[in-house]
Amino acid sequence: MALKDAAVSGGRGYPVIDRHAAEAKVKAEAAAYLDGVAKRLKSSGVKTEINILSGPPAQTIVAYTEANPQDLVVLTTHGASGFTRWLMGSVAETLVRSSRDPVLIVPSKKS
Fold first, then answer.
1. Rounded alpha-carbon distances, angstroms, from residue 35 to 38, 42, 45, 97, 108
2. CA-to-CA distance for 53 and 60, rounded, in angstroms?
3. CB neighbours (10 Å) of residue 91?
4. pTM of the predicted model, to two decimals?
5. Which residues contact 95 (CB under 8 A, 6 or more apart)?
6. Between vectors from CA 4 to CA 37 and to CA 53, what angle results, nearest 5°?
7. What pairing do the DSSP bridges indicate for beta strands 73-76 and 7-9?
8. What confidence score (pLDDT) does residue 63 get?
């Protein structure tokens, strides 16, 4: 998403980002992407469910799956390692350790 798409005029010539517009745009882009993925999976007979959530990724996913048990939670990794992984943590690792549901981790194509 280009931030200029969510920017409004601010004081002193600096743009001010409309957080709600930016979030709406990101969610719309995510929904469009996930709809395409879901169509491909459904054509192969895989039941899918799309939920776009906001918040800290691992904690948000764990809370959602605790309230809405799933047959399987699938996510890809970014392939971070070393200092970046130590600093940022691992959503995949947190989810595997915390989720009551089975979790399938798929390596990204970059890994």
1. 5, 10, 15, 28, 19
2. 7
3. 20
4. 0.69
5. 58, 61, 62, 73, 75, 103
6. 40
7. unpaired
8. 96
